[in-house]
Amino acid sequence: MNIPHPIAAERKEPSASPARANARIRVQGLAKRYGALEVFRNVNVDVGDREIVAIVGPSGCGKTTLLRCIDGLIAPSSGKVEISGVEVTAPLPGVAMVFQQFGLFPWKTVFNNVAYGLRLAGASKAEIRERVPRFIKLVGLAGFEDAYPYQLSGGMQQRCGLARALAIEPSVLLMDEPFAAVDAQTREILQFELLRIWEVRPTSMVFVTHSIEEAVLMGHRVVVLKGRPAGVFEIIEVDLPHPRTRETLMHPHFAQLREHVWTTLMDEARAAELQLQR
Amino acid sequence: MRRGFESMLQDKSGLARYATYAVALAAGAIIWQLIASRTNPAFLASFTATIDAIAGMVQSGALGRALASSTLVYLTGLGAAIVVGISLGLLLARVRLLRVGLESYIMVLYATPMVALIPFIMSMMGFGFAPKALVVFLFAFFSILYNTVEGARSLKPEMLEVAQSFRSGEWGIWRDVLVPHTLPYSMTGIRQGIGRGLVGLVAGEFFLSGTGIGLLIMQSERDFDVPGLYGSILVVTILGVLLMGIGRALENRFTAWRGLNR
After folding, report:
1. Inter-chain touch B165–A97, beta carbons under 8 Å
2. How far apart, in whole angstroms, are the C-alpha atoms of residue A94 and residue A147?
3. pLDDT at position B262, please?
4. Domain boundaries in chain B?
5. N or C: which end of chain B has fewer CB within 10 A?
6. Is the ipTM of this complex over 0.90?
């Protein structure tokens, strides 16, 4: 049985996504297959300079794979990604990723974890001594420079992961469900911390999440990925005022947008459930 | 505030702990002495006679010469096992072709009791220094290799992704990720290898040409010098305990970041 839905009825084709004039990231016709398994196909998304684009979708829809293609960790099967006009074939300088499981090196102290990207980028010792404490302070970890990751809570570990990414002063930040592994309260705190930091140092950001609320709160636009293979189902403009703060959550329009994304996503989940019941 | 004896024992650096060790050892020596006084001295030398024998061996210089000769064999074999074991282990973990190619040989050799290889080594290499060092090497090598490979393979793929994402080269991956992650596992292998290498040393000195501490044991056995026999065995035992202690200290030193030994 087919369940028609007012929003699901007309699938807005990804090619209809408007090209941004000053796109920092340009994803064109991207597809990824593993043998017979097609993860996603024909994904077209542009991310403007200093724009946050949230990518939301059901688990297993390939959000994380898409993000790894954008970073250059995984080669796409077809299509291409350009960052600042350069085609991505391997991770580019000026692009930093924040990992879901934090990705800290447990054998390095907070200081050395934060310094990691800078060292690889060839920063001098003096630069490292000057910059690292600044970013440790920015994420609120001052005083923990010599701590090892096992001595930190999950939230603090992700602050460290964020400082490591920010320390190379990237023009593009790729966030892979960065707050999925911390408890709900910490998650909320970190969301507003990140928004605060973004106001201070705005970068282009791709923010992958499975939380609809988080997507609407963080994103200037929300990209809904769904289907099998997944594709861009809809791109929703989030016309909420800046800076985004706790008050944004109380905004009546926030609730509307959240509902909109919810129905867009859940329609398919419901259909899948009914299919199973049949 | 009064502290219970139990809690004093749990205190790792506490004096109580070492005092207890000392008392237990002293009690053991007394029991040994008592049993020996009621046993035929042809079977069991008393504690004091054993200590006397060791003192005699120290004075005559026999023990010093034996230890010097054994130490050289042991350190050569163990050193080679550590260097080859760790580097080959890391290479195996990182280079798939090498791993698949050598896996079956490693499995076969790991499963072979090394003592069984000693006659083969003798027929190939004779009785000199090198075959004995090779026996120590073979006894120690596989636990180091095996622990290193397993350790390196337990590295979470995410760690490599982080390195790649921050544009690390191959050398950087080894320096920042692979080696520091694997070292604690290698240390466990080294600690095991230290003990196994000692077994290899004595076995080599028994079955190849008699030298060093192994010769000391065999000579006293041949001469029915029971206290000398017990003395040289006790020296090997103490050596083993000391070496294991060094191994454990090394292991702890390299695993501080795991937060297991606070």
Report:
1. yes
2. 27
3. 38
4. 5-37, 50-258
5. N
6. no
Give chain B positions within 8 Å (CB) of A150. Answer: 257-259
- CB pairs A-B closer than 8 Å: 56
pLDDT of residue A270: 64
Coil, helix or strand at residue B234 = helix
CA distance B144 to B82: 7
One of 1.10.3720.10, 3.40.1160.10, 3.40.50.2000, 3.40.50.300 is the CATH number of B50-258, namely 1.10.3720.10
Ordered strands of the A86-87 beta sheet: A37-48, A23-34, A78-83, A86-87
Q: How confident is the model at residue A187 (pLDDT cuts 50, 70, 90)?
A: very high
Which DSSP category does A14 fall into? G
> Which pLDDT score is estimated for B5?
62
Give the residue extent of every domain in chain A.
25-39+47-94+171-278, 105-169
Helix (H) or strand (E) holding A53: strand A52-56
CATH architecture classification, A25-39+47-94+171-278: 3-Layer(aba) Sandwich (3.40)
CB under 8 Å, gap of 24 or more: what pairs does A120-125 form?
A: A120/B166, A120/B167, A120/B168, A120/B172, A121/A93, A121/A168, A121/B166, A121/B167
What chain A residue is nearest to B159 in terms of C-alpha separation? A103
Residues in chain B: 262
- The model's confidence at residue B109, banded by pLDDT at 50, 70 and 90, is confident
B10 pLDDT band, cuts 50/70/90, is low
Contact B162/A121, CB-based, under 8 Å?
A: no
Query: Which residue of B161, B166, B186 is the best one to mutate when testing the A interface, meaning the one whose CB has the most A CBs within 10 A?
Result: B166
Q: Percent of chain B having pLDDT more than 90?
A: 44
Look at the block and give the residue holding tokens 């947008």.
Answer: A257
* Nearest CB to B164; choose among A91, A108, A168: A91
CB B163 within 8 A of CB B105: no
Other beta carbons within 10 Å of B151: 23
Query: Cα angle at A89 between A83 and A90, to 5 degrees?
Result: 90
Label the pairing between strands A231-237 and A86-87.
Answer: unpaired
B182, pLDDT greater than 50: yes
Nearest CB partner across the interface for B158, out of A103, A120, A150: A103
Instruction: Give percent of chain B with pLDDT exceeding 70.
Output: 94
Q: DSSP per residue over B158-169, as a string?
A: HHHHHHHHTT--
Please indicate whether, in this complex, the C-beta atoms of A73 and B258 are within 8 angstroms of each other: no
pLDDT confidence tier of residue B43, bands split at 50, 70 and 90:
confident
Q: What does the alpha-carbon distance between residue A244 and residue A250 come to, in Å, rounded to a whole number?
A: 11
Spatial contact of A212 and A225, defined as CB atoms under 8 Å apart? no
